[in-house]
Amino acid sequence: MLLVTGATGNVGRNVVAQLLDAGEKVRAITRDPGARTLPGDVEVLAGDLTRPETLPAALRGVDRAFLFPLFGALGGFFDVARQAGLEHVVLLSSSAVTLPSPGWIGDRHLECESAVAASGLSWTYVRPGAFMANDLAWAAQIAAGGVVRGAYGRASTAPIDERDIAAVAVRSLLAPRPGMAYELTGPESLTQIDRVRIIGETIGSPLRFEEVPAEQIRRQLIERIPPQGADFLLARLAEAQDGAAETLPTVEEVTGRPAFGYAEWVAHRAADFDPGAR
């Protein structure tokens, strides 16, 4: 039995789907098991990583787990996991931990990695960079008039499809290689301007990127994440305006197939960008 935490998130739901496709038995925990959004083949139990007393039933009979990085809340999970006999954990981390200055986001993920290492359990870290799914935040602007407003439009990143992150995690669950830390990128270095253009070409709608002051974007970001996280993200974009982003072959090396390109991801998520595609 494999346990998936964060099973309704962008990565977690793909981990669930790919494990089911592989014929595995999957259990997921959620704070509200009555609001089912997972496939019927999944055993869904009530559980909350911030409340360890809810976890014994979820971990009973589980030998491997995919762990969502809930900041500051993993110690209790590992207390229960050791007692339950969990053997291997695959942690969703971040490539920010590899930076010379990891910043607020990298530091939070390093804390999660340290909690895993201190648990005494066998582990694998999956460290993606920017998610392609982050660009779903542009959907409302695209639907409202075809103009995406942002800061540092010429900043280059190599965003990764959430299906590829999940594929590396699933491989790490099915054929564990203890002590491995996989840094992941997508296959292309793209600016924000490039990505808006590709979205438009893929959904057949003329779109354009409009540069706005970074402070305006910061105000929007801190509605969803702490100010320190917003400052880190904007600083990384500011630094990425010169030159191409590094692309890594890790997805293909681990899974045996090429990583999905950005246009492939947009086509997969077209209904989220184009109301007419629903």
H and E order: EHEEHEHEHEHEEHEEHEHHHHH
Topology, number of strands: 11
Low-confidence stretches: none
Q: Helix proportion of residues, in percent? A: 25-40%
What structural class do helix, strand and pairing data support? alpha/beta
Distance from first to last alpha carbon = 35 Å
Shape: globular
Sheet-strand content, in percent, reads 15-25%
Q: Summarize the main sheet.
A: 7 strands, parallel
Which strands sit side by side, in order, in the main sheet? 3-2-1-4-5-6-9
- Summed up, the helix count is 12
Radius of gyration: 19 Å
Q: What is the overall pLDDT average?
A: 94
Question: What is the gist of this entry?
Answer:
Helices cover 40% and strands 16% of the residues. With 278 residues, the protein is α/β, with parallel strands linked by helices. 40% of the residues are buried.
3D architecture notes:
The chain has 278 residues and is of the alpha/beta class. The chain has twelve helices and eleven strands. The strands form three sheets. A seven-stranded parallel β-sheet has the order 3-2-1-4-5-6-9, sandwiched between helices. Strands 7-11 form a two-stranded parallel sheet. Helix 1 (12-21) links the parallel strand 1 (2-4) and strand 2 (26-30). The radius of gyration is 19 Å and the shape is globular. The mean pLDDT is 94.
Helices, strands, pairings?
Layout lengths: L1 E3 L7 H10 L4 E5 L12 E4 L9 H4 L4 E4 L7 H10 L3 E5 L10 H16 L3 E7 L10 H7 L1 E4 L5 E2 L4 H13 L6 E4 L5 E2 H12 L4 E4 L2 H8 L5 H13 L10 H6 L6 H7 L1 H4 L5
Parallel strand pairs: 1-2, 1-4, 2-3, 4-5, 5-6, 6-9, 7-11
Antiparallel strand pairs: 8-10
